[in-house]
Every structure is written in structure tokens, then in C-alpha cells.
Amino acid sequence: MLAGAVCKGGNALDALLLGLSTVAETAAAELGRKASEDDIARHAVKLNVFHTINFMLQHSEPIRQKVKTGDLVIQGGVYDLGSGRVQFLGESPAQSKLLKSPMAAAPSLKDKLLGA
């Protein structure tokens, strides 16, 4: 699996790629065995947008408070390099659930790399 190779590499890019591999695996599982690589990649990009929004909502108290009070709205989007267009995805489907849950401490880069 990619995780073993990433942990031995030990740099920030490796940790970020490890996170993306989880998103890609989720995308593949959600679309099923008949999905093409292109379909999986497109779906993984969208999932990663929501994964990033969810991370901010889980680990940043200032962002959580601004969203709760309505002073901040977080909308996901995907920029198409070829057309220059943005596909807006809206708020994370998990937003209300995340805002009701306790804030979690952000994982450290070291923990990600060591698999802790």
C-alpha cells in the first residue's frame, strides 16, 4: 500500500499524498468496479474539496465560529484549467453535523507520517 512507502519518505508532500490516496480510494469505492479511471479521478477531486472543507470545520475554532454565526460561508468549487470555468459544489454535506460535534485537535504532520 502507498502508506508504507509514504511513511518512510517522511516529507510534507508525502503526508499530503497519503491523504489524497484515502480520498481516491473512497471515490473508487463509491463509484464501483465499473467506473473508469477518469470518472474516479473527477469524483476524487470533488471529494477532496469537501474533505478540505471538513478538515477546516473540524480543526479551526475561528472558522467554526464564523460559519456558525453566518459571518462566513464556505463553498467548494473545482476550477477547470482547460475551460477556465469553476464548478461550484456548495457547502459540505457534512457541515451541520461537523458544527454540532466537538472540535478535534488537528493531526500533526509527524503523526501522519508515522501513522500514529
TrEMBL record:
Which protein are we looking at?
Answer: Carbonic anhydrase
Q: Does the keyword Zinc apply?
A: yes
Which UniProt keywords are present, listed alphabetically?
Lyase, Signal, Zinc
Q: Which family does it belong to?
A: Belongs to the beta-class carbonic anhydrase family.
What function does this protein fulfil?
Reversible hydration of carbon dioxide.
- State the SUPFAM superfamilies in the record: beta-carbonic anhydrase, cab
Pfam families from the xrefs? Pro_CA (PF00484)
List the GO molecular function terms.
carbonate dehydratase activity; zinc ion binding
Q: Its catalytic activity?
A: hydrogencarbonate + H(+) = CO2 + H2O
Signal peptide as annotated in the record: 1-28
Q: What is its EC number?
A: 4.2.1.1
